Amino acid sequence: MRGIPALRYQGDQVAVVEAELRYRVSPNWAAVAFVGKGWADSDLLGFETKEDAGAYGIGGRYRLLKDQGVWVGVDLAKGPEDTVFYVQVGHPW
User: Fold this and answer.
1) Residues in a beta bridge with 86
2) What's the half-sphere exposure (Cβ side, CA atoms, 13 Å) at 30?
3) Tens digit of pLDDT per residue, the chain (93 long)?
């Protein structure tokens, strides 16, 4: 999940829900907004846990190679502990 360090939350049962909205500003530019929530628990019977976290953020995309459909982008994500800046090629999912 963008905004959460890898392997930060662990458990025997885990769940993650994420959503991303994209708005095409022009044929080559897009704006995105995203949100996610994750849970981790080691208790088999109850999924109520303190090991949960949410993150959200915004970003932008530019279609670099039009014929191949390759997009590059930047995201700014806010998690419970940090604010993180990402640079990516392609879509995160």
Assistant:
1) 75
2) 19
3) 888 888 788 777 788 999 999 999 999 999 999 999 998 887 666 555 567 899 999 999 999 998 888 999 999 999 999 999 999 998 666
- Picking from 56, 92, 55, the residue whose alpha carbon sits closest to that of residue 73 is 92
State the Rg of the chain over Cα. Answer: 16
Q: Coil, strand, or helix at residue 14?
A: strand
61 inside domain: yes
Range of the domain at 46: 13-89
How many domains does the chain contain in total?
1
Residue 7 lies in a domain: no
Taking alpha carbons only, the member of 88, 90, 55, 93 closest to residue 74 is 88
Q: Which residue has the tokens 């959460």?
A: 4
pTM: 0.81
